[in-house]
Specification:
- The chain is of the alpha/beta class.
- It folds into 2 domains: 5-15 and 89-216, HAD superfamily/HAD-like (Rossmann fold, 3-Layer(aba) Sandwich); 18-84, DNA polymerase, domain 1 (Orthogonal Bundle), CATH 1.10.150.240.
- It is built from 9 helices and 6 strands.
- The chain has helices at 18-31, 38-41, 49-59, 66-84, 96-105, 119-125, 149-158, 172-180, 209-216; strands spanning 5-8, 109-113, 134-136, 165-169, 184-188, 199-201.
- It has a 6-stranded parallel β-sheet, with helices on both faces.
- Helix 1 crosses helix 4 and helix 3 (49-59) packs across helix 4 (66-84).
- The longest helix is centred in the middle third of the chain and has 19 residues, at 66-84.
- The structure holds 1,6-di-O-phosphono-beta-D-glucopyranose (B16) and magnesium ion.
- 1,6-di-O-phosphono-beta-D-glucopyranose binds next to helix 3.
């Protein structure tokens, strides 16, 4: 089936906000009396705010009330917003602008598929608010990755079938979401980590639209 749409994750694909999520979560863990490593952080990528907090608290051996958890999640988000509010178009990852111009020339549709509730703010900060035909973010979904909802909703909004879509993801949970949604998935990162992806490259800077279409259709 011909490919008609490309669906992009935000954190780690368009911009490197993963580092800011990590810094804010690490600060929270430290205040709670333990630490999280970069290796542990891998499993938080693409996972919703509350699910991430649950994983972190379990890692630190803590059980807290829902009220306390809401307070901690709000604190982490405040620290995260302080970090991302300084972002500009300089934070767009290498190769994204060139790749997007190839996408447009190829006549493909685009959607953002991010579980982040802060996605619209980040797109605004980096000057990409108008770069997508559809935007699905954390406010529009009920289930985070690895559930496929964020991508199947993107396909539905673009009025294309899952088999006509390619997903671009940097996270294990996001690659799984794309595969469960019935889509061709390009993993951006290491093939040793993104084992479920159909094609893996270090970043969008290492791919052309033609290369992806040749593999996907
Ligand atoms: P927020 P993505 C995800 O975004 C991040 O990878 C993940 O680390 C974060 O916890 C999640 O968004 C929720 O973000 O707290 O801003 O709502 O990778 O799906 O673009
Ligand atoms: Mg990501």
């Amino acid at each position: 089936m011909p490919i008609r749409a490309f669906l992009f994750d935000l954190d780690g694909v368009i911009v490197d906000t993963a580092i800011y999520h990590y810094q804010a979560w690490k600060r929270l863990a430290n205040e709670l009396g333990f630490d999280i490593s970069e290796e542990f952080n891998e499993q938080l990528k693409g996972v919703s705010r509350m699910d991430s907090l649950d994983l972190i608290l379990a890692h630190g051996g803590l059980t807290l009330s829902d009220e306390k958890k809401n307070e901690l999640a709000a604190q982490k988000n405040q620290w995260y917003l302080e970090l991302v509010s300084r972002m500009t178009s300089d934070d767009i990852l290498p190769g994204v602008a060139t790749f997007f111009s190839q996408v447009r020339k190829a006549g493909l549709q685009t959607a953002l598929g991010s579980v982040s509730k802060n996605a619209p703010l980040i797109l605004e900060r980096i000057g990409m608010a108008d770069a997508f035909d559809a935007i699905i973010d954390g406010t529009k979904i009920t289930k985070g990755k690895p559930d496929p909802e964020v991508f199947t909703k993107g396909a539905a909004e673009l009025e294309v079938s899952p088999a006509e879509c390619v997903v671009f993801e940097d996270a294990v949970a996001g690659v799984e979401a794309g595969k469960r949604g019935g889509m061709f998935v390009v993993g951006l990162g290491s093939p040793d980590v993104l084992t479920q992806a159909d094609l893996v490259a270090p970043s969008l800077n290492d791919l052309t639209v033609d290369q992806v279409l040749t593999k996907a259709q």
